[in-house]
Automatic annotation (TrEMBL):
Domain Neutral/alkaline non-lysosomal ceramidase C-terminal positions: 541-699
Domain of life (superkingdom): Bacteria
Protein name (record): Neutral ceramidase
Cofactor dependence: Zn(2+)
Any Gene Ontology biological process: long-chain fatty acid biosynthetic process
Pfam families referenced in this protein's UniProt entry, alphabetically: Ceramidase_alk, Ceramidse_alk_C
Amino acid sequence: MHKLQRFKRFAIAGAASLALLGSTLVAPALAPAAQATEGGYLVGTGMYDVTGAVAENGAFGYASHQEMKGLQQRLYSRAFIVVDQATGQRAVYVSVDTGGVFNAVRMKVLERLQGLYRGLYNGNNVMIGITHSHVAPAGTSSDKLYEIAAEDESLHGFSQQVFDITVDGIVNSIVRAHNNLEPGTIEAKRSQVRGITRNRSLAAYLKNDDVAKYQDTTETTMDQLEFTSETGEKLGVFNWFSTHATSFPMHWDLYSGDTKGYAEYLYEEKFGTNPNLEKTFVAAFPTSGTGDMVPAAGNSSSLPEFQGTPDDYYNVEKHGQEQFDASWQLFNRPGRQVAGAVDSRGRYVQFKNYVVNAKYTEGEGDKTLCVPARGFSFAAGGENGPSGIPGIYEGMTKDTFRVRDVVNKVDQSDLGGLVRFAFAAISVTGQDPCQAEKMVLLPDGQWGWASTVEPVQLLRIGNVAIIGVPTETGTMGIRHLRESVEKKLAPLGVDTVIFSGATNDYAGYVSTREEYAAQHYEGASTEFGPHELGALQQELDRLAEAMVSGTPVADDALPNVSTRWKTNRPGVVFDDKPPSQQFGQVLTQPSAQYHQGQTARAVFRGGHPKNNLRVGGTFLRVQRQLPDGTWEDYLTDRDWDTSYRWEREGASYSRTTVEWRIGEEVPAGTYRLVQEGDWKNGWTRAVSPYQGVSNPFTVS
């Protein structure tokens, strides 16, 4: 199972990419490690399925009422744990293949961990990051703003199924990592990877006063932690790099990990990963920053100057391969062994009426954060996901337009859910002077639609620290926060600070003061006003100071994660079929023969995939015939080249399609397609499995 089919379409391109990266990927010399604590580390990794409901469900990221219709790649939560054997202190980092993790999810995870481990894992030492795929299952937020952003065509924005599966997967990945703890080592590696991303808001970035200090207009740092057992077994790799996982465009309707999911898949196939095993090699590619950074390869729906090819798979595979190649170069270089104490600080900060000290406001004196709100340029979307709304563009400030002129140009029938609400509210919304240059379009804070309590966190593993903030942070903002924490933690010997954005919760964007004034998409989506970045820097400095002094920190408050907003997506009432057919019956057989590079396809009479989410299982199999006539699994829905598609016929019929993109290195032979699912009886409510098997076909 899980035969490696990649490095095929990009086998030659990958080699060329490595040659190119050789001149752009620079591993800087790092200072000597901090003194190791007596006893070294215990290390453990684990992964678990978080795929969830794969049809009649939304996605989070584009906020465009995406109605998802199947699965391109199974999704996972991946975790590592490090234990300081001298002190017992622990650090946990989780990377989830999802668009956003929210306060409600994190608090439920911490509640479950408290029940299992009685305080061993807590809000100080458990950090949850994401890949930020814009085509992953959504519906896990208790905030109305992000519930609407996750709506599908039915206007349902919360899914109890997806919420439960996400929490279960995160917890179980941590449990597996805990159970796998063993003496081991950690290597930290860093490089500068240039040429594979670009700044989508360059005009705003160039407004920064300190832009001349930096060579690059995007954040090019790639950080990597590698975990090895005392016996030399490779346990896992975690790689942070700043980019948007948006190479599948907003019209894509199959769930996927996008470029970071592809990079993870390439790694894990090399190591023979089996995600259903308690212990297996884990490769995670959480996002570092996103903000103003997008793939240089673009996607098929981007604005013309940012557009990729019409081939969505090509765009994804190109940028995923680029990240993998850079990471693989690091993996095959000697690194520096991490040594030193393990520590953590994290707290929930109440940003309502929060005062940012003058030190962090760039000469504007003490400032109070604003009530959360989105500006007009938020409705324009980013270059990699433009809204196309007439009269809306990036750079709309209070001084540049009249609201009435814009509203008259807008055709509300074309708008997504959030923007429709926003324009409907314009006539009753007063502008907030606190928001400075931002002309408020969506006063979500006034309506109680967004949390004002946000998590900020620091993990320390010897000479390495990891910053966790809940915002999509741009190029310059990342630099400011990282450099500030590096200075504060220098007395502890910390010389490598990893940035993890959109972490522990999702709270929109954050931009620098100069970028905010320009009001591009990122500045218009900076909820708490022009000094939000200063507030984050102030809080991270306080956490770092507490870490240096050895003092604890406390929460200001806990976020309200009540269910009052939930519009839970409906489940399956029953499945039906024509009297002359059976569940699993093949409606369209594959062709008798295919060649490498073609796509094999079969259509089945199926059931709704929400009947059984098949956690750790599969909706499809590609099977290969052995010489003795028996069949073995060759690929499943975990594999990159397969896809499962569901569509409704009438009120209660389902058609399911299995596709296999046959790679150039697939061995000649006889194969068949299998679809597995479950159907729900309308009379008894019983759910029963079925299996459909296609005719054999040859590949040559």
